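ok so I'm stuck.
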Amino acid sequence: MIYSVLFFFFFGVAFLLPNHYYPWGSFYLEFSAFLALLVALLERVRNIKSISVPYVFFVFLLFSLIPIGQWVAGLILFKGDALLALFYIFGFFLALTIADSHNKSIGCKKYVDGVALALVLIGGGGHLDCYHSMVIFVVQYMGP
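replied:
not stuck anymore, here's the structure
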């Protein structure tokens, strides 16, 4: 339960935090999204003790090593840029792995529908004129 609360807290902060001024324009948002990913990983490891990774996901793990190779070859001038690209692509691999593991667990459809509905409501929360489109989308998504 505490993992779910922490996940939704950090994930909500990633969308709703109003700090958009330089130089930290996206640091807080992306770091809170990373913390949500880390909490989701801890929850998955605690619940199932092992995570199986589909072989096709290893392509993204190999893609995450490309920036390091480009830095060694001199195509990327700064090591920090290469490491940042590595972390982003590795984070994508990790998110795919966690999502696949969660998808294989029992009773995840209600949870996934809840997250999708939360994202729709959060995404339209700042624009009051788009709520009618969101209502139409939710009705179409949930079906008759």
